[in-house]
Structures are given as C-alpha cells and as structure tokens.
Amino acid sequence: MIFRPVRKLGLLTKFAILGAIPTLILSVMLGKTLQASISHRAREHARDEAVLFSHLAVEPLISEAGVASTLSATEASKVRSVMARDGGRSGVTGVRIWRRDGELAFTSGRVRHERPVHDSAALGSAFAGRSGWSLVGSGAADLHVFVPLRLGQADQVDAVLEVSMPYAPIAERINEESTELLLILLAGLTLLYAALFRIVAGASNKLRQQVAENEHQALHDALTGLPNRTLFRDRVEQAILAARRGEAHLAVMLMDLDRFKEINDTLGHHNGDFLLQQIGPRLRHCLRESDTIARLGGDEFALLLPNLQDPASATRVAEKIRSALSRPFVLEGLTLSVEGSIGIAFHPDHGTDVDALLQRADVAMYVAKETHNGHEVYATEDDQYSPSRLSLVGDLRRAVGSGELLVYYQPKVDLASGEIDGVEALVRWKHPERGLLAPDEFIPLAEHTELIKPLTYEIIGTAFKQCRSWHDRGHDLSIAVNLSVRSLLDLQFPDDVARLLEEHNVRPGWITFEITESTLMADTWRAMAVLKRLSAMGIGLSIDDYGSGYSSLSYVKRLPISEIKIDKSFVMNMDRDENDAVIVRSTIDLGRNLGLNVVAEGVETEEVWKKLAALGCNMAQGHYLSEPVPADEITQRGGARLLPDRSPSDLPGASVGHRDALAGL
After folding, report:
1. Is-above-0.90 flag for pTM?
2. Residue 41 has pLDDT above 80, yes or no
3. With the C-alpha atoms ordered 461, 466, 467, 473, is the resulting torsion angle positive or negative?
4. What is the CA radius of gyration of the chain?
5. Is the model's pLDDT at 522 over the cut of 80?
6. Please, are residues 193 and 180 in contact by the beta-carbon 8 Å criterion?
7. Domain boundary at 108, 138, 173, which?
8. 52, 209, 247, 640: least buried by Cβ within 10 Å?
9. What is the pLDDT of residue 244?
10. Helix or strand or coil: residue 605?
11. Closest by CA position to 632, among listed 463, 408, 414, 472
C-alpha cells in the first residue's frame, strides 16, 4: 500500500476551520445566555402581573380574620367575581390562599398539583416575605406565583396568595424572542466571520506573495536577478549527487570582469551596475538550459555546467563567453570593451564538494587574470593553498611577535657621490625548520589573512627603532618600507604610523613608504586619502616597480610622491636590450622633469651602473652594490660613507674595487 503524504493545510483553510469553531461556540454560548435572560425576564414579567393582580384585585377583598381559617362566603364570592371579571385579562386561571399553618383558606379556578406547604420552596419563600414562583405540572404547564399578603397592621405575612397562570404563552413568547435574537446574533457573527475571512484571505495572499518574494530574494541577486551564492551552491551540490549516480562530469567556472573598478570609478556606480545587469543575458546565450549562471558579488560570476561529455566542452564555453563579452557595451554614449578572466575546475578531478570546486576555480581564475590568458583550468602547481601552505600560515601566525621575523637592509647608493643615501627594509623569516625564507614565500600568505597587519607594524616598528639607532650614532640614513594594499586601505594607518614615530622618536622626513602601482588599483580614492595624510606628516612616498604595472601618468601627477623606482626588469637588461634602455632613459627624464628622485632597482653589473650614471639617474640599488644585509653590517661599514678614504671620482664604476667593497656588505 502506498501512503501519500498528507497535504498541509494552508493558512486560509486553518483560519476557516479554527475561526468557525470558536464562532459557533460563541454563538451557542451567547444564544444560551440570551435565552436564559429572555426566559428570566418573561417569568419576572408574569410574576409582576400576578403580584399586581394580587395586591389590586384580591388583597382588598379579604381580611386578616378571613384567612385565619376559611374565607367567608362573602369574601369568597368577591374573589370569584374578580376572577371571573379580571382573571382572563391578567392571564390568571386560578388562585389559592394559604394560611400560615400550611392549610388552604381558599381555592378558586383551575389549580394543578396541590401540595403541602413544606414541599414548595417558593411557598416558604413567600411566607418569609419574598414573592416566588415555580413551574408545575407535566412539561411545566403552569407557572405558579406565590405572593405574600399583609392584611393586618403589623408588618408580617398573614397569608400567601398562590396565583396560577398558564406557562405555554410565556414559553412561546420566550421562544419567539430568543429565536429572533439568535437569528440576529447569527447574522451578525456570520457577517463578522465573513469580514474577518476576507481580511485574512487578503492578508494570506499578501503573505504568500511576500514569502515567495522573500524566498526569491534570499536565493537571487537583487541587482541582476541571477541566482546568488546560496542557490548556486545548492545547485552544485545537486549536480554533484547526480554526477555520482551517473558517473558524469561537471565543471564549475568563476569569472571576474577585468578592470571593472576603473569603469565604476570613471563612469559611476550606476553605470557599473547597468553593465553588470547586461552581463547575465550575454552569458545566458552561451549556455544550455541545464546550465546555471549566478552572481556571487561585485563583478564575480559563477557558472555550473553539469553533464559534460568531456572537459574540452567547458573550455569551449569559456571561449564563447569571452567572445560574447568582446562585443561592445554602450554606457552613457561610450562604447566599452569588457573582458573577463575565467577559472575552471572539474568534478571529480579537482574536487568532490562545492567548497573545493569553488576554491580551485578561484585559483584558476586568478592565474588567468595574472597571465592574461582569458581562461585557465585549475592546476595543482598554481595553488597557493596546498596543505604545506596552510601549515606555513599556522607557523607564520606563531612567528609574528616571536622574534622569528628579521629585517634586512639593502643600501640605496647615490650615483653621483657613491654614498649610501638610505636603505630599504626587507623582511626575512627565520623559520625554525625551513631556514631563512624570502618575502615571496610568506608575504602573499599574510596578505590573504589577517596576519599582514601585525606583520607590517612589526616591520615598521623594527625599522623605526633601527633608524633612531643609526641617527644616534651619527649615520644620517633614511629608511624605506614597503606597504601592502591592506595598509593603503586602512584609514587608521596614518594615526598608527604617527604613534610609532613618536614612540621611537623618529622624524617623518627620515622615512619613505614604497607602494606599487597595482596596490593603488584596489580602491584609488581611499588609497589617495591615506597617502595624502602620510605626505602631510612629512613622510616620503615612492612608487615601487614603476613601469611594470599600469604606469598611469595621471597617478604620478596626482599622487603626493617624491620618488619613483624603475622596475628591475628594465634595468637589468638595459645594457643588452635597446628597448629597455629607452624605457629607463624616458623614466629618468620623466622623474627629472617632475622634480622627483629616481631610483634604479636591479643594478647587477658595472656596465649598467655606468649607463645609469651617464643618464643622470639619482640613485641605484641592486646586488652589484650590496645584497640585503643585517643592520649591524650597515653599522660596521660606517653608515652613510661606503668608502670614506676615496673621493667620489674613484667610486661609481671607476674601479672593480668599489664593487668588491660594496659586495662585502
């Protein structure tokens, strides 16, 4: 036997049932109450009629002596005459007069159910001075009202007049009034129920619509209407389960729009939003009905391709997407070309759960962005989040503040004088098991965690302390420290730097912060605000690796910088590659014309040194001059003067001895 699940009752049905039950109960209760009230009033009215008949028609006709035993013939005749004349009009069918000893003094007309006085509570109540009534006979046919009679001068009951009245007319009147009121009550409650039902029905419909809307909003992106991260994850999970049953392949793809932030900053966020709204339809035309496209946030989109015949199908879809995006977008009359970087991860090759597939598609996407290849399939060698890397993060967390992070210093030499004009602070990690690690092995890990902030402050604090020490020894050296994008986006950073300067008694003019062009792209206006505050404090600012990034002249013009450092990729080969030489020469001319100090990185040979000196470059830095060395080696060399016993003409490029002396650092 197949048991079908019982369908849950809707809100409106529940109200209809639950609302009807108390309404009916209330109707019955009110009906009963009203009927009892009407019955009570009808009986009270009949009693009042009997009392009035007793006091006005009967009581004046009898005397105290007459009720002592049996009414006299005269009194009895008068009572019967009154009965004949007024009884019918008052509804009285018979009367009896009871003496105090419980015996009858008079009986007239039709009186049912004669009883001794001790059997009637109403009779006893009348002798106590309070009129009462009772229903007697089969089916409560008659209403008997007992009225106390006070015939003498004393305020005492001398006898009780029992007035018999037919109850049927009273009961009929009660039923008529009760029925009428009950019908009115039922009509009113029905109208109330109908009105409430209508209100609840409207509220229920609105609530269902709101629930559906909330559910849609919870699972879809508000801007584009595409599935959001939650719905995308659910669909990937379902696709994984289906793939396991059918042994099919599926692909998860992540796409990030290249240079989308520039569009936002240039044309405004409203145009950026309009562009994002157009991306979905473009991508949908490249996909099958069974495929899913979602917006995860910002300019990041995700795609699910289930039931793939082969991995090459996903790469073909990626190429179709890039082709679709290559068609121009029009924003505010401007024709824009938009590109995307796509990362691809396959199930089960690259992961067997949602998190693994998303993480590995993300790794592949950033490789595609860095290599400008458009799309990349996940490769293990590109993944910085391998188990060994995760272990290294744990070690780094312990290393910060424990003394394992060392600061080395690489001299920056004045090409005109051969003197050390300053140094660049470079961090090294003395790992207890892996030995001395270069920054490239752990700084990227720190930048992807919260460790970059305490690590940066530890390096700055160490550099400031060393700078103070050198100046106390008479070595007039400046120190340059590299900043990460996290520092440039931290509006609290200038205040923290000011605190460290005061703590170590270091002048702002002794310090230079080096930034790369790529760090400025994260949030240009926020970074600009931080840099302007640092410059206002008197700290020097230098663009590091100039020429390797976007090389925007507008940044050079707008930023409060005092120095540019030519990227070593151009400097190292300028003696062999004419194009590199032209770039270096142009950069030096640019810096000179803008009044900026120009530093050449990556000086590896004497020939490059001489060419830089001939081009008028201000300073040089590289292995030809010195490797990064501990602070005490800089101190032992006497600080600023590399070779104090030689004249400037003997120094840069004049002899191999100068290079050897520098290499000793």
Report:
1. no
2. no
3. positive
4. 53
5. no
6. no
7. 173
8. 247
9. 84
10. coil
11. 408
